Amino acid sequence: MKKGVMRPGHIQLRVLDIEEALKHYRDLIGLIEVHRDAQGRVYLKGWTEVDKFSVVLREADQPGMDFVSYKCVSEAVVDQLRDELAAFGCNVEDIPADELDGCGRRVRFDSPTGHMFEIFATKEQTGKWGVSAVNPEAWPRELTGMKATRFDHCLLYGDDLEGSLKLFCDVLGFDIAEQVLDENGERIAQFLTASLKAHDVAFIKHPEKGKFHHASFYLNTWEEVLRAADLISMTDTSLDIGPTRHGLTHGQTIYFFDPSGNRSEVFCGGDYHYPDHPPVTWTADHLGKAIFYHTRELNERFLTALT
Questions:
Q1: What is the pLDDT of residues 152-187, one digit of tens each?
Q2: How far apart are CA 216 and CA 194, in angstroms?
């Protein structure tokens, strides 16, 4: 049941050193640095994104994710969902306009898995980077690194998957596109979407609350994923796993780490989901194939390296 949440808007990540982080997110992944604010935060975006920014980096003592925000179709939807979030039992905080430069007011709320989320409706739109909105060329010539097109989704680890499923589906209007069930039929992974994508956020069951697994950025082709692997090797970046294919969502993927220990993904392809589609289900005895379709084996670091 759609309620007016369109898509991921931005994610704020904690990094230990801003300039080292920029070598990763700007120079390697290829995001565009668009702004630095009075707090020292750095704003970036993928070149196809029309909003001013989609990634914010904040220097801190510990790595991880501060919050991820979702864009709604209108301020009226934000008001309605704010009331519903409070009624659901979330702790709700109103963040004033321009606390993030160029972004309107946001509503921040906690979740059963211990992660912080936001909704908003208004953000300055600067257009796709390097191409005109009228008679646009195919792509900007000035792109660097992996040439990431957009911030696509994040994967989060926490304990109360059922609570977060109710929050995202019943309150925010997401659909469940894919899931993994254990031998008792209990859900141990869920991939949720507010759009036609395979997922806009995903959760894996984990005993600790509030853990961050990765932020993911979209590439156009499998050839670009292979090129990303070359760049990871050229820059001696810490590789997690890949290039490979997921069984879940069928995306073609590679995982690697920023200098602070936050995991990044770049991927291409993947399934689509319409609201009338039932969830795709994997069973826990096929979890290796679900996560890494080719090797069919789990990488222990992939399951345990969290920030």
A1: 999 999 999 999 999 999 999 999 999 999 999 899
A2: 16
Summarised one tens digit per residue, pLDDT across range 244-268 is: 988 788 889 999 999 999 999 999 9
pLDDT at 142 over 80: yes
Nearest CA-CA partner of 245 in 271, 284, 273? 271
- Three-state SS string over the chain comes to CCCCEEEEEEEEEEECCHHHHHHHHHHHCCCEEEEECCCCCEEEECCCCCECCCEEEEECCCCEEEEEEEEECCHHHHHHHHHHHHHHCCCEEEECCCCCCCECCEEEECCCCCCCEEEECCECECCCCCCCCCCCCCCCCCCCCCCCCEEEEEEEEECCHHHHHHHHHHHCCCEEEEEEECCCCCEEEEEEECCCECCCEEEEECCCCCEEEEEEEECCCHHHHHHHHHHHHHCCCCEEEEEEECCCCCEEEEEEECCCCCEEEEEEECCECCCCCCCEEEEHHHHHHHHCCCCCCCCHHHHHCCC
**How wide is the angle at C-alpha 56 spanned by C-alphas 248 and 257, nearest 5°?**
50
- 172 token code pair: 């925010």
pLDDT band for position 1 (cuts 50, 70, 90): low
Active site residues: 153, 199, 214, 246, 255, 265
Q: What span, in angstroms and rounded, lies between the C-alpha atoms of 78 and 105?
A: 9
- What pLDDT, in 10s, does the model give residues 25-50? 999 999 999 999 999 999 999 999 99
- Sorted by where each starts, the structural domains of the chain and their CATH numbers stand as 5-120 (3.10.180.10), 151-304 (3.10.180.10)
Name every residue whose Cβ is closer than 8 Å to that of residue 170 and which is 6 or more positions away in sequence: 88
CA distance 35 to 32: 9
The pTM for the full model equals 0.96
